[in-house]
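Order emerges. As here.
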Amino acid sequence: MAEAEEQETGSLEESTDESEEEESEEEPKLKYERLSNGVTEILQKDAASCMTVHDKFLALGTHYGKVYLLDVQGNITQKFDVSPVKINQVSLDESGEHMGVCAEDGKVQVFGLYSGEEFHETFDCPIKIIAVHPHFVRSSCKQFVTGGKKLLLFERSWMSRWKSSVLHEGEGNIRSVKWRGHLIAWANNMGVKIFDITSKQRITNVPRDDISLRPDMYPCSLCWKDNVTLIIGWGTSVKICSVKERHANEMRDLPSRYVEIVSQFETEFYISGLAPLCDQLVVLSYVKEVSEKTEREYCARPRLDIIQPLSETCEEISSDALTVRGFQENECRDYHLEYSEGESLFYIVSPRDVVVAKERDQDDHIDWLLEKKKYEEALMAAEISQKNIKRHKILDIGLAYINHLVARGEYDIAARKCQKILGKNAALWEYEVYKFKEIGQLKAISPYLPRGDPVLKPLIYEMILHEFLESDYEGFATLIREWPGDLYNNSVIVQAVRDHLKKDSQNRTLLKTLAELYTYDKNYGNALEIYLTLRHKDVFQLIHKHNLFSSIKDKIVLLMDFDSEKAVDMLLDNEDKISIKKVVEELEDRPELQHVYLHKLFKRDHHKGQRYHEKQISLYAEFDRPNLLPFLRDSIHCPLEKALEICQQRNFVEETVYLLSRMGNSRSALKMIMEELHDVDKAIEFAKEQDDAELWEDLILYSIDKPPFITGLLNNIGTHVDPILLIHRIKEGMEIPNLRDSLVKILQDYNLQILLREGCKKILVADSLSLLKKMHRTQMKGILVDEENICESCLSPILPSDAAKPFSMVVFHCRHMFHKECLPVPSMGAEKVLTTHTTKHLCLRWRSRQQLHLWSQQRASIKHYKHEWGRLQGDSSPSYHVSAISNENDLAEPCQTQALKCKKKKKKNTIK
């Protein structure tokens, strides 16, 4: 449990009770402070008996009959002398403009704080309670109740006179009352009643549970959570009552409202006050404990608990023991709990003290986290509630967090948090760096230093680099790679590295780092020297990036030794900067590297290095024979005689064979294959490539006395040479391996050739027939002829104006149309030709536009038919479809004629 602190300045001191010595890890829900200023002065001479709370001010009644109006800080604003004896209760309306006071001597006063309105009455018995109407300021609500031995309701009539009526009596003194809306709740010795002021009816009676407790020593505590929810605390029992409307069919003679107890449970201690807090309850408890030494009961510190009500029990959320002044002499009736609904302020009133409990805000939450050294959570809470916190700054919390981590030796975490906490504050960064230097932890903060915005003083970065240079070369190299070169004085660091290299000149890490520093300084020559010495992979990148080709002309061998593939690619990609001639000259003493360069040059372009092809023959022969033959085949610039001489000297048979055949000496090449290689398959392949009958003859002559060669020839010769030539020359009785299989294969190959030829013939015939049918279908399509068409010769309409008049016409594939009589008459007699023969014509219009001799062999045949055209009934402009019948040559001719035959149809006519 958390404890309220007690201090003379107004805060509560921490309890020294043994049971409270251990700090709770659970954060308290409320915070406490003592109401001081004028209250302190009052309670030094007097004692508090009651208090009521308004949103704007407080009203405090004392044992000496005084009523003080206080502001929320406890300063006295007004003072009223009401009675010489104890003030039992003070009541305020919701507006805070009217106050009711009752005293132990029977005096009752109701008056306006800002008006002359006033009511005075003195009864013959002590008046324990008073409650003014919440809306007393309204003229229609001038009502209040008082309670002693009976409960009286006072109302002002229209004549401004007050009249009273008894609401209840006969069950002992009225000791508590609460008025909310139209409902008045009060408690007497027997229980709690609720009165409906609108219906003038009492709607419930809730009896008290523990009748053994004296009601004057353990009074009932009442509070309204809202207009229909009443909370009752009496002894150790708590009841939550809900006022509900009764259904019309249930009313009869019953009140329109009734009360239902929705929750009821017992507490551990005696209840002195209740207040709602959202859906929870704040309970002020009076505690008695037994001394272990004397075994006698004594008054312990009161407790303020926050509980979560359930239907038949409750759950404790928090519990705080309060060290109020004079708690050892107080009784349960001496404590009161008042609250301000608008601000969730709770006032614990005792005769000698007034303590204010408040809900903890984010600042209080952060205070508690910092107290528990939960800095990360405090920092997160401050960031989330940045707009709401007033007493704390994110930066202050962050710096405290860093200091806490450093104190615990968690240097890396502390350094990492600097990035987030220090942000762009360069001054704080520099301050923290020097702190880390003092504890010897510069390495820890180095990865997190800002490198852009902000930029710290160069001295800061140099200080860290020197720290690494003294103890960690790898870490130093990492920082040089990661940090931009403008963060520090590069020349200072270069000199420091060179000083260390004097002690360890072969240290690769330092040499590489020095090269990087030279690069930052744009001293590329020195950097290149170091990279080449180290054979570092970045040397090529350095050359490309900074165009250092002029610096490497005398370092080509070094580059090739380091990585010949990358070096050659780079040199070939930059021929304009380093010529082929220069590279070849530099590599003259390293023929193996010269070959690598010239080989890749030849792969890229067969002609660029043609002047070196003769040299390459020797290089290939020496270092790369597998690529010699491809080179000889692809190069057209190498001297064949020189190549042949080298190959013969080295006895390169395959290359020699190729060169002999290329030089035209195929017979010598074939002879070398057969005599040197003894490879009949290669000899046959060579003969096939050359396709020379004399070579085949030489091959047969050489093989005729060698059975294995004969077998190879029999298996492969059938498709190129008549095998009979070979078979006739085989000596009788010669034993030939697999002769039967070879002869069978010859017959199968021959049969296969026959089948292939027949298949090809069938395909050709089928294609020809398909094309012929397609041509025929195309030529059989009709051609539309109507009155708009004209004769291409006489330019008159192709159709006669008199449809009954017989006529003849000719239509060509090119859609040109002619009257029959407009065509030239064949020399052998037109009538005979038109009726009995097929005469070939070309379209006159086409013939006039094209060169006739190009088509003299491609003329169309046409048959002419006469037809009597009749006018269709009701159709003054008949149209005709023309279908052509001609031979298969018509489709290929651009403007050939078609034979026509006309038939009369409806609206259109087809000419066939």
Summary: Residues 665-778 form one domain. The two ends are 118 Å apart (CA to CA). The CA atoms of residues 556 and 620 lie 21 Å apart.
